[in-house]
Amino acid sequence: MSHAVQERPVTVTPRRPLSHARLPRWTPAAIAVFSIAAGCGIGLAAGWHSKVQWGLISALVFVLTTYAVTTKVEGSRQAKDRVATSLIWVSFVLAVVPLLSLAWVTISKGMEVLDGYFLTHSMNGVLDAEAGGGVYHALLGTIEQVGIATLIAAPIGLLTAVYLVEYGGGKLAQAVTFFVDVMTGIPSIVAGLFVLATWNLMLGFGPSGFAGAMALAILMMPVVVRSTEEMLKLVPNELREASLALGVPKWRTILKVVLPTAIGGITTGVMLAVARITGETAPVLLLVFGTKLINPNPFEGAQSSLPLYVYEQYAVGTDAAVARAWAAALVLIAFVMILNLVARGIARWKAPKTGR
């Protein structure tokens, strides 16, 4: 007995290519050039004179054009990925352009006055409305005040962070964390008023660079604590356990293993704190008062500082005073950059060697 076998039709599924069309590598650059041209054209046609408006239109055109072109060639899924990348680049450019613009304006205007004479002379005997004078007294005051504030705040902040990460865990640690968070948002004028009320009014001391340094240390401490705390948390617990398993005491493990491992991040946090306090004017204005004379003693008498010098000269309003203000601002930026480079070098020198 034979059975007829019914043949079923065979459907052949079309083979999908393993690779799909991709845009050339130069496409983002071409889209960027087109977007800039389109943004400038739209701005001119609309009668907008602000370059910021032109830039925002260009950024919007860049994102939309990237999505449209990528969807047409590569598909919607790849288009979403490219749009996310484009948004990251646009955000980066929007953040860098003001920074570069500020640096360019400061350098171009500050170099008109900045020279060896400006760095080695004070304003003693020079009227604010006249040309001449220098920034030496303010630079000396900034170095002393920031140095004293760092010597006060950095060890206290470092030890506090070590306690919170390595030893803390009870109510005391919670209270310390709470007050550190509160101190992070304290306005600089409040720190200055606190030192003014205690050090100057209650204890009877006069204006000095040390009083300003104490106010700057109050502003610096919470930044050091928070940054150091986060860096210490990044140190793997395996390193601590390995050291403790060898019989090394905990304090020595922290000193020889934990801190050297996190020294790079700790140094960065300290420099961020230094950069914050270097530009403060309110505490200096309240506690240091400012002077045109060179006062190398930070513990007695009024001093000046670079931020206060910039404020005083710009407030005068004459061409010579404004030029000195720009030059002092450039010196302030260079001072912070030099401190960062020195700190980076020390951190790299002291960091543990990972090579064999």
Task: Walk me through the structure.
By secondary structure, the protein is mainly α. The chain is built from 14 helices and no strands. The longest helix has 35 residues, at 76-110. The chain is flat and about 100 Å long.
Write the layout of secondary structure elements.
Elements: H1 27-46, H2 51-73, H3 76-110, H4 116-120, H5 136-167, H6 171-184, H7 188-202, H8 209-233, H9 237-245, H10 250-261, H11 263-278, H12 282-287, H13 306-316, H14 319-350
Keywords:
356 residues; mainly alpha; 72% helix; 0% strand; flat
SSE sequence, one letter per element: HHHHHHHHHHHHHH
What is the CA-based Rg, rounded?
Answer: 30 Å
**Class derived from helix and strand content:** mainly alpha
Helix content: over 70%
Q: Mind summarizing the main beta sheet?
A: none
Amino-to-carboxy terminus distance: 82 Å
In round numbers, the mean pLDDT is: 86
Total number of β-strand segments?
0
- DSSP helical segment count: 14
Beta fraction: under 5%
Overall, the morphology is flat
Could you list the spans in which at least 5 consecutive residues all have pLDDT below 50?
none
Briefly characterize the structure.
The chain has 356 residues and is mostly helical.
